[in-house]
Amino acid sequence: MLKNYLKIAWRNLAKNKVFSFINILGLTIGTTCCMMIFLYIMNEFGVDKFHADKKNIYRVMRGFDMNGTKLSVPYLSGPYAPALLNDYAGSIKKAVRVMHNYGLVTLGNNSFNEKKLYVVDSNFFSFFTFPLVSGNAATVLKDPASVVLTETAAKKYFGNQDPIGKIVELDKSLKLKVTGIAKDVPSNSHLDFDMVVPISNYANEEWIKIWINNNNFTYVLLNDNVQKASLEKSFPKFMDKYMGKDLARFGAKMDLSLTPMSDIYFEPHSAFDNVKHGDKKVVYIFLSIAALILLIACINFTNLSTIRAVERSKEVGLRKVMGALRNHLVYQFIGESVLITLISCLLSLGLLKVLMPVYNHLLGYSLTISWNAAPLYLFLVGVIICVGFLAGSYPAVFLSGFTPIQALKGKLKLGKGGSFFRQTLVVVQFSISVFLVIGTIIIMSQMRYVKNMELGYNQEHSIVLPVNNDMYNNRQAFKNELENLGSVASVSYMSGEPGGFFDMHTLKAEGRNDLVWKTRTEFTDFDYVKTLGLKIIAGRDFSGAFSTDTTEAALINRTAAKSLGFTPEQAIGKWVQNTIRDDKKRRIVGVIEDFNFLSLKEKMDALVITPNDDHRVVVIRLKSGNVTAALAEVKSAFAKISASYPFEYTFLDQKFDELYKTDIRQQTILSIFAGLAIFIACLGLFGLASFTATKRTKEIGVRKVLGSSTQGIVVLLSRELLKPVILATCVAIPAGYFAMNSWLQNFSYRTPMHWWIFAVAASLTIGIALFTISFKAIRAALMNPVTSLRSE
Amino acid sequence: MIKIANMHKVFSTEEVETTALNGIDMDVRDGEFVAIMGPSGCGKSTLLNILGLLDNPSEGSYEFYGTEVAKMSERQRAQIRKGNIGFVFQSFNLIDELTVYENVELPLLYLKTPPAERKEKVEAALTRMNMMHRRNHFPQQLSGGQQQRTAIARAVVATPKTILADEPTGNLDSKNGEEVMNLLSQLNAAGTTILMVTHSPYDAGFAHRIVNLFDGKIVTEKVHV
Fold first, then answer.
1. H helices of A364-473, where?
2. Number of CB pairs < 8 Å for A and B?
3. Does residue A723 surpass a pLDDT of 90?
């Protein structure tokens, strides 16, 4: 019997090519999208799960109060790890410090800026599970003069030579021997490195020995029986013991907490935690899209199978006459549905394999779950069972319920109930499509809004160079050299470029003894305002005319003035003091208009700008004109003072765009999936249009005989089919408005939700639906009336 | 033995009630060949459908080989139908997606006949209907006569006690019609009870008894000697 069912299923598929094509194509695209999203979600939830000791690994977080808001940051200073190990010997089995750094790697005449350099404790590779292809995890970093490279880094530095035992020079001071090669860090790791150097190289440096210089992540491995909460309870005592005096001096409070390894990835991304982070909201959005796409494909399947089933009424009747019971027919139709799903799933696997490189490119990283991983197949089995059964069950139950005579005479009618059901499904399908279109347009317009927003500073023609040691030592000479170039408009050294990193320090302010004032700080030279094109709204800029400006002047932004309770004018002349950096008070000499120095996802923050030698980047504003020639001039000036460093620059606007790279990627993927959802829905509509045209062939013939025009017939057919699409649009618009309004709340700066967005979504969907329907309707209307009548 | 008494069948829609059968009494003996005749709309096909257990009467009794079946559910009727009743239709009603062999095999599949026995029976039926050479053809590749011979092979393959034929020659030319009637006569001669609805007096001439219906009632019965 099974063989008979299979034969008939297969022959039916082959016979009704259009129907089979629509069904299989829709389901294949739907399943492929779902698998892609499934892989993405698996990857997201799989982050950091590969570490053998993942259950007992925690990252130590430092909590403090920032102007009334509780903040938790992962940066700790060097002494924490040894002190924690010492004080909690019974609870903490191991601790490791991880410091993300940049460095100049020199090999003979070649030099590279290594941007993924980790300075770590020697137990790094035995603490975490980053497999080594060469070297022993326990000993590979024991010797301070050792270095571990990833396979990619080794290839970059040494090509096809064996890197083990080779010497690399770091920052022109440390000679390190390659003792191990690590496998490339998978994309599902929040830590990401290319080069690992023992922290013992810096053991005698002052900056690593003091408690208040926070520069590394500290991870601890707890013993099996230790409870996180009970350990955390004892941390205030620990903080008091080591930091009590310092905290009292700054008038600050600080505590420690532990974040489980598995929770780190989904912690919110911030300037103070720049490891790779995921966003659960995005994961849920993708999950919903997968479910919606699959639902659209299922609806097609159910609708088309039901109307197709009517054409098989003779077969149903005959089988009943021959003795088939209802359950035989239910099994047969569900079986066929499972078969189509199975074919679709097999095709999806092929399609997935082909599309994986494109998908990885869109995502911007390689998914670590292989396309042939076991969970994927479990997912497919789930799809086959759920979709096959669910989508197949309605036509199965519907058809098998007819009496043999009804079926045999071909008198199966998809009664009013059936038609209502089908129409409802179409409404659901198109509601989802319109909803996705609205979502996509709003996400796109939000991204465009952010990109084109007036940021309050001059982004154009400005390049950013990291300040290396050579440049730092000769920074005035380099600046002079640049300023003498005809192509350079202005140059300024600073601790962080807009969109980059900004420290947060505790300041004291005049008249605000009540306040522990935490603000963002910028350490710069006198040309900051000029180079970035900032607007002074009160007071003046730093000036060489005032000899005390270097040590006694400060600029603040409007938000900083406001948070101190001053108007910009009132703020002028008041004093502020950075409790960490400055020994004495500084007078506010100017207030600048707020500019977006952080990502637009973050709220405008208070900023205090002071002249200071802590210069980490240099921003060079070029004059408009020939940028290529200007860059060549800058490069040559750079080579004069910093020949051993590679000339690597970024444009300031490009740097700002980097902040939205992930959002833009997600937006692209979302648009593609939304487009596919509409495509699948239209495939279904095409199927329905074919059915309607066939069903009404006789009516069309009669109407034409009686004088109806082709146009009249097209309108007649299209009107019926468009009704559910229009209704869907009406349902989706308010739903889309509320959902997207809530999404936009995540941004500090939001695009307005223009009425035209909804009009475009509605017109686009209705337009595509109309095009699909017209294709069939016109063909039916152009048919010779005699042919139409004869077909009955 | 088929026995029906005071059988009524009323079709109801929201607005109209149509009486298709109006108090039919009829007995059919084992091995009998009965032709049911009458004008269009007189209730012939309705009667045949009820006799074939494809539908239930609205009222009255129907005894099929000793079992009262008038009030049975579709499921129960299906159980009795398979193996006991074969059907031959005017429009052949072969499944287009199955070959001649597979169409004939279908009733045996629902009877769960073992494969070897199934093969033997299908081949015997096809040979008897002279259709073995066309066993792998699909219905669309056959002439009308060949399609009806296939349908008859399907009707007899499970060796049912009764064959119901609804205008079996209605879609055939005279030569193929004659052939089909001869086949039915041969089956009857071999002991199968045959109930046939027909418009053709010539075809009716093959039957032992002709029952004439008019407005849902039996108006005359004529027995051939």
1. 374-400, 404-408, 416-452, 469-473
2. 71
3. no
**A628/A612 Cα distance (integer angstroms):** 32
What are the φ/ψ torsions at residue A681 (nearest 5 degrees)? -60, -40
Packing angle, helices A280-311 and A661-695, rounded to 10: 10
End-to-end CA distance of chain B: 20
User: Residue A537: is its pLDDT beyond 80?
Assistant: yes
Q: Which residues contact A641 (CB under 8 A, 6 or more apart)?
A: A470, A471, A474, A477, A478, A481
A318 → chain B, closest CA residue: B93
Q: Cβ contacts (< 8 Å) between B9 and chain A: which residues?
A: none
Decide if B183 is inside a domain.
Answer: yes
* Confidence label for A675 from pLDDT (cuts 50, 70 and 90): confident
Across the interface, do A405 and B55 touch by the CB < 8 Å criterion?
Answer: yes
Give percent of chain A above pLDDT 70.
Answer: 96
* CB–CB contact A317 B93 (8 Å): yes
d(CA B14, nearest CA chain A) in Å: 14
Which one of B49, B54, B91, B92 makes the best mutation probe of the A interface by having the most chain A beta carbons within 10 Å? B54
Mean pLDDT of chain A: 86
In a domain, B60, yes or no: no
Q: Nearest-CA distance from B24 to chain A in Å?
A: 20
With a cut of 0.85, is the ipTM above it? Answer: no
Q: A556 with A526: CB under 8 angstroms?
A: no
B95 CA: distance to closest CA in chain A (Å): 6
Distance from CA of B79 to the nearest CA of A (A): 7
Tally of domains within chain B:
1
pLDDT value of position A587: 94
CATH code (residue B145): 3.40.50.300
Give kind and range of the element (H or E) at residue A622: strand A617-622
Query: A24: burial class by Cβ within 10 Å (0-12, 13-18, 19+)?
Result: middle
Structure tokens at A714: 């097209």
Higher per-residue confidence, A773 vs A77: A77
B109:A4 CB<8 A? yes
B105 touches chain A (CB under 8 A): yes
Q: How distant, in Å, are the alpha carbons of A494, A556, A758, A787, B202 from that of A535? A: 18, 12, 38, 78, 109
In this predicted model, what pLDDT tens digit does every residue of A388-405 receive, in sequence order?
887 777 777 777 777 777
Q: Which residues of chain B have pLDDT under 50?
A: none
pLDDT tens per residue, range A341-382: 888 989 998 998 888 888 888 888 887 666 667 777 888 888
- Chain B residue whose CA is closest to A326: B75
Interchain CB distance below 8 Å, A4 and B105? yes
Contacts for A303 with CB less than 8 Å, ≥ 6 apart: A422, A425, A426, A684, A687, A688
In a domain, residue B26? The reply is no
Question: Which residues from chain B sit within 8 angstroms of residue A322, using beta carbons?
Answer: 82, 106-107, 110, 154
* pLDDT, average across residues A622-644: 89
Model pLDDT, residue A787: 65
Which pLDDT score is estimated for A286? 85
Q: Is residue B77 part of a domain?
A: yes
Ramachandran area for residue A632 (φ above 0: left; ψ -120 to 50: alpha; else beta): alpha
Name the token pair of A118: 């980790």
Q: What is the pLDDT of residue A792?
A: 43
Asked if A321 and B74 come within 8 Å (Cβ–Cβ), the reply is no
- Gap from B82 CA to chain A (nearest CA, Å): 5
| Average pLDDT for A714-720 | 81
* Contact in structure between B146 and B134 (CB atoms under 8 Å): yes
Contacts of A45 (CB under 8 A, 6+ apart): A283
Q: Quick one: closest CA in B to A1, which residue?
A: B109
Domain that holds residue B132: 31-55+73-223
User: Given A15, A318, A326, which is nearest B75 (Cβ)?
Assistant: A326
- Do B82 and A12 lie within an 8 Å CB cutoff? no
